[in-house]
Amino acid sequence: MVRFFDRLSGKKGLYIFTVLLVFxxxxxxxxxxxxxxxxxxxxxxxxxxxxxxxxxxATVEVVTEPVLxxxxxxxxxxxxxxxxxxxGCEDGQPTSARTLVAPNLPVGQRTSTLSFIDPxxxxxxxxxxxxxxxxxxxxxPSVGNVANKRATFRLDTNESVKCTFFxxxxxxxPETPSCVCPKEGRxxxxxxLGRMAxxxxxxxxxxxxxxxxxxxxxxxxxxxxxxxEGMSADEATITFRRNPNxxxxxxxxxxxxxxPMEIHFTLDVVNQERMTGALSSTVNxxxxxxxxxxxxxxxxxxx
Length: 303
Known about the structure:
This protein is mainly beta.
């Protein structure tokens, strides 16, 4: 592939082909055959390692259905933490917010766990049926886990997120289908024939040949996050976030030679040992728009 561009570069005025070479190199960086790209992908968000000036707010809310006003207490640990008292009702409705608020938080991940439920709540027939967060459209959506009675906040810059704990006497059907978690370990990635095409100041089309690579997948946050490593020769890392429909998406972004670019990935989990997906990218430079697309399939190959 490099020799192909070398032959073209002898013509004057075709600096754009250097850009195209960068484009293919970047494409190869993510599940393709070359290792020349020098990009930095989005790292998994961790608490305490971001710019603390970019403050956000995490809020825990409790909702009981039907409304319960017996003075019972619920205790939360983590961030936010504290007690919520189920009192202060009028005409069968709460007169004040049943919330805990943690303001001025740095960008990153926090968890809040419902660590204590007053026995009177349980004796009245209430159980925790759902934990829902209101930032589902975020690039890093927060997630709730009923089994662990926990909300995991993923705060972006200046973002306010509320996660609501619903307690009810009536079991609630799942809001979305149960998502299948792929196995952790080694995976083989078979890249299908792809294509890169440019339009604008010039036209150009070039196939991306099929190639098979191997790497690893690890899961976190109850499988809401997948991290793919070693899927190219330079062992680039791709972080995938789960969507409400159980598919995953990830983006590798960076800059090469002053040219900003991103590669977008999707993953659909067929079963615990098989996934399919697609990648795409667009580069605009010197009056030309270059698009790259490729599909791939992944199979589990062992721990």
